[in-house]
Amino acid sequence: MKKIWTPILVLFILCIAFLTTLFYGIRISSLSIGGVYVDQLYIKLHKKLIVSAQEVRLNKASSQENSREEIVAILKYLPWMDRLFYSINIENLRYEDEHIVLRYHHDMFYLDSNYVTIDATLNPLERGAAIGIKKLLLKDFNLELQGSLDLDILTQAGFFQGNFTTHGISGSVALKLEDMLLSYVAQTTSFETLEPFMEALSTAVNLEKEIGEWIYQKIVASAYQIDSLEGKIDLLSGDFFPYEMKGFARGKDVKVTFEPTLPPALIENLSVELSNNQLIFHIDTASYEGIDIGRSEVYIYNLLTEKNGIVVTLKTKTQLDARIHRILQAYGIAIPLSQTSGITDGTLELDIRFLPYSLKAKGTFLLHDANIRIAGVPFYSREATIGLENTTLTLRDAHLRYEDILDLVASGVIETTEGTFEGQGMIERLHVAHQGENIISLSKVSSPLRLDFSTPDVLISIPKLATSLRFGEHENRIALARLDLLYPHSSLLQENGFLKGKTTIITPDFKTYAVDLDITELNSLLYRDGRPLETAHFIIHADATKTLASTEGFSLHQTASGREIFLENLDIGLDGTPSSPQGQTPTTIHGKNSHLLLLDQNQTLPFTTYTLKTSPKETHLVGAFEQGNVTLFQTPTALDLSLVGADATLMNHFAKKEMFDGGVFELTLKGENPTFFSGTLSIHESYLKEMVAYNNLIALINTIPSLALFKGPGFNERGYEIKEGNIVFSQKEEVLTLHAIYLEGTSADIVGEGVVNLQDDTLHVDLKLKTFKDISNAISQIPLLNHLVLGDDQSIATAITLHGKLENPEVTTHLLQDTFLTPYNILKRTLQLPFKIFD
Description:
By secondary structure, this protein is of the alpha+beta class. It is built from 12 helices and 59 strands.
């Protein structure tokens, strides 16, 4: 037993000695034990411990890394401080990474560390203390609190109410502590800037840099005020429960900068709501470069968590002009349409993900009565709906009009990155004209449509018409790859017989044109080498005053007063009497080695040169053949034609028979129109060659022996020799009347008259063949005998009649009657002889 009690007694004595020593106080100048170094330590027991030290140094790092952890440690040890200590004064409590000053004396508590400074008074209560906080500074957040804290030391529950100051922001705050969960409600007075606070918050809660930039750099107010901010923090874990944070704030005279190079949007009053981890901006009156954007919306989602971003929804009724485009371009969105007049009801939503960066854009723009520019080219739009989905634009029932040329309604997709449009459309109207001539005029044609505006020009392709239209600031180009598709819609193609081919039309203003026209199937009045011209390549230049066109052997010069055509080695067909093409336009045609083809008469005028002038009032033709010249003047009431110096070749050409051999011919016509006129045909030194009537007459002479004398020099191998001849005729409607026929031959003359019916191709002509010219010449030299044999006209005559069809008329003669009558005539002239003696 003695051995057991001895150690106990020694320990008891030592404790009594230690307590007795504490009661009187212990001073130790320095002490080092177990990694702890103490300098100038003083300990005394006076009901409670009194402890002071100049320096306490611990050879380890502090376990607290921020103000929150320091507060947790203070709350952990604070209940024991009043229970065990009367006062504590440690001037320098040093860890390897921290320096702390701690003072506690009855009702005064002071602590200064790397993270926290506390200056407070403690008033003990039954379960805790009423703590008056003169200053509570959370250094890592630059947050200073003043107020009162009722703290239950045993449960570590408490309530604080007071004021705070942080980064130039002041206000009131209420804190509730329960199970180490700190709930807070705060509000502020007006303050000028959020920048220092947001920079500190970004560091404290790992806030994305872009969120901070939006809140205090892109959205800047002249004055801020937080009406309420509430939430809670788990002091042990640091969780601040972002989805349960709530708050309301206001900003005045707010400037929102979408991009540094852009002017800011101006918001007179801005309300901000924090809810469900979103920061929602409620916009009152707002404008951007004079545009009312008061209906717009902005909110930041996942404000304090990952995958955060901002959604900006711009709502406005304004022009879709450069002001809006600059905003879109700041986010890489290019709408190839700029509005210069009219109103657009627009909604644009930008969803900007911060990390990793991404952009989702969605919008709708409704245009009404708007003048717009696409790639710099002006259009008018009656109405259009433009939908935006990222870089893809959708057009719905978009009306576009270019000048007075094109009206279309299109629906389809625009790829803004490629500058193209693909869709369907209705060509309401496509009209290209020059000087009243419709080059193209169509309407209500449905077709796929393609647009390309990747260059400064706008290219519109209409596959159904094989047509493309390129509109530019300085040049417009229309390419028609298949004229046959446009033939029904072009009076120009129809009137000129351009059936197939292609063309390119270049114009700066739709007043001046340069045209390359390649015709592969032509139905026109032009001929080459007797064959219709089937292909041609025209080069055309036209402006407000004139049109110039040319192809091989053809050129045209047209003005408002008329047109002038030059033909060389090309023939032109005329359907009827030459008149003004297209009715009202005076036309002059100059021909060189060019024939006029009278198509209705199947006749050709083989000119070497000619000038044909036609107008609604008159036609004037002057032409030269290889032998012969012609002049024609015609009005609606008069016709005058003169052919002089013509040779047999030309006359046979007109007759389409080999009628004449040699000679010179003249023809004159005068009248009212081509079916009502009179005229004369003069013949000099020619032979009437074989033709049906002539052949029939010769056959008749050869079969009658009594007419053998007719086979004189006047009827030889070359035909009937005509020394001089004149035919006087007239035509009325379908009846050609031969008033007088006089043909003077070498041994026989022919005189007569007759009628030709052109409607049924029949004729009836009575001729007198005055023959025996050689015999009568000899008899005429014998006085008195010439009167007895030849008669008054010094000739012997026989009547002949031609009648029947023109192709093969019958020839009849009155020779038998003349034979019977001859003795009577001699007797008659014998009785008259005495009177002739005295003549």
